[in-house]
Amino acid sequence: MKWLLLVLSVFDAVATDAGIRLNAIQEANPFAALLYGTHPALFYGYKIVLPSLLLLMGGRTSSILLSRLILFAAAVYALLAAYHLAWIVLAAGTG
After folding, report:
1. pTM for the complete prediction?
2. 81 Cβ contact list (under 8 Å, min separation 6)
3. Are 84 and 11 in contact (CB under 8 A)?
4. Which of 1, 17, 64, 93 is 20 to 30 Å apart from 87, CA to CA?
């Protein structure tokens, strides 16, 4: 599950970047949008570092709370992945 969180996080960053570049979507998180507007590398760092920190904390302890937080974050990223895949399919169909 831990690596799934990181994979989904990277997919979210790449898909969001592609959607913004194609004018298909906008970043919904105002802070992430600000970072993207400043420089996409800051955006990628933000999108990848936060889940990575959560994984690092989870790997150093056997806390049930952290395990559940990682599971919750992975579920949220899975929903975001489904959203990204939906707009990708829709954008490809109208292209």
Report:
1. 0.84
2. 8, 11, 12, 15
3. yes
4. 1
